[in-house]
TrEMBL record, chains A, B:
<dbReference type="GO" id="GO:0019120">
    <property type="term" value="F:hydrolase activity, acting on acid halide bonds, in C-halide compounds"/>
</dbReference>
<dbReference type="InterPro" id="IPR006328">
    <property type="entry name" value="2-HAD"/>
</dbReference>
<dbReference type="InterPro" id="IPR051540">
    <property type="entry name" value="S-2-haloacid_dehalogenase"/>
</dbReference>
<dbReference type="InterPro" id="IPR006439">
    <property type="entry name" value="HAD-SF_hydro_IA"/>
</dbReference>
<dbReference type="Pfam" id="PF00702">
    <property type="entry name" value="Hydrolase"/>
</dbReference>
<dbReference type="InterPro" id="IPR036412">
    <property type="entry name" value="HAD-like_sf"/>
</dbReference>
<protein>
    <submittedName>
        <fullName>Haloacid dehalogenase type II</fullName>
    </submittedName>
</protein>
<keyword id="KW-0378">Hydrolase</keyword>
<dbReference type="InterPro" id="IPR023214">
    <property type="entry name" value="HAD_sf"/>
</dbReference>
<dbReference type="InterPro" id="IPR023198">
    <property type="entry name" value="PGP-like_dom2"/>
</dbReference>
<comment type="similarity">
    <text>Belongs to the HAD-like hydrolase superfamily. S-2-haloalkanoic acid dehalogenase family.</text>
</comment>
Length: 218, 218
């Protein structure tokens, strides 16, 4: 990366952690429906954050994650008991980090500021990063809950500037989510799209500055 | 419907017209990929309207529809020639209305004001309704392009009040899109969800006032 980059900012869900590592538990609790439930759960989690942002009806990402889970189970004509909800939400606090994450963070930490910046509220973000043993590698854990404005709104990305006291062009923002990269690029960050799923570039006239298949490329 | 309803307002895409009536042409132009392209086209069309609303990067729904088509074709590793783009966008101006639409409109027209209210810009909305022979049944054709704010933002739904000079509780808003019903309910309209796809209710704490499987129930 160029000399102008002083701060490396990571998205969390899908970028540092595999959101589909809950699939096995979904399958155990809802046989033959695990993959569908996991897929809809993530899809609705994102959609509800977008819709609530547009409607001006904020609630925390933890609440949205519960709502999305409820929808996903209902869609498969199954019932979400409070016991299953508790197990699945607990599993979301123990997602698996991608294999290259620790090495990349340790390498970049020398001489740079590292932060995470997520739609997740601190009640789900802090335990996740703590339990994965990654907390000491980050200088800041930034949640959009501090502004109650979801990504990709400019007000959300602005939290990075407020927390880290940097200029936007000094930030390299990394996300596996194409829409998040579009939002960050629109805001003025330098961007690296971690295209883990070999997806086409989004057609939003906001191309990523860099594209890698995983974080090792950074 | 109750006596308090004076104005019947219809969403367009998916509610009056079947957006997947372009599937056959997709299949003809991209054999074996028609259904996938049609599905992703619609999915991305909605997602891009949400994302642009949140990023504050407005462009018309016609442009978004072209962008979404480009993504959908790319996702299937196919190429969208300008000839194919022209054909498919032209097909979007000739979507098929659902079979009950004309009867329902003719019945409701007696004594009530009827309007359409859509994310679609007038350059796609007006020819669509005209060519289906439905234009004379509506008192108003309202596009969010007049405010450049996509649904489900309150500023979009407010266009209905401005155009029709009614109070929000006098409006019955009908849509097949669960997210659109949530937005309309949040704004204060009475709502009827036309649940054509037998989907679960959205988990946004905004239940529809009525649910029907097609418009005949209204």
């Amino acid at each position: 990366m160029g000399d102008s980059i002083k701060t490396y900012v990571f998205d969390v869900y899908g970028t540092l952690f595999d959101v589909h590592s809950v699939k096995e538990l979904c399958e155990e609790l809802y046989p033959e429906k695990g993959e569908s439930i996991s897929f809809t759960w993530r899809e609705k989690q994102l959609e509800y954050s977008f819709l609530r942002q547009i409607m001006g009806k904020y609630t925390t990402f933890l609440e949205i994650t519960k709502d999305a889970l409820r929808y996903a189970v209902k869609k498969q004509d199954r019932t979400l008991t409070s016991e299953n909800e508790e197990k699945l939400i607990e599993a979301y606090l123990h997602l698996t980090p991608y294999p290259e994450v620790r090495d990349v963070l340790e390498r970049l930490k020398a001489g740079n500021k590292l932060a995470v910046f997520s739609n997740g509220s601190h009640d789900m973000l802090d335990p996740l990063i703590e339990r994965a043993g990654l907390a000491e590698l980050f200088d800041h854990i930034i949640s959009i809950d501090e502004a109650k404005q979801y990504k990709p709104s400019p007000a959300a990305y602005n939290l990075v500037l407020e927390n880290l006291n940097v200029r936007r062009e000094e930030v390299l923002f990394m996300s596996s989510n194409g829409w998040d990269i579009s939002g960050a690029k629109s805001f003025g960050f330098q961007t690296a799209w971690i295209n883990r799923g070999n997806q086409p570039t989004e057609e939003l006239n906001l191309k990523p500055d860099h594209i890698f298949t995983n974080l090792s490329g950074v």
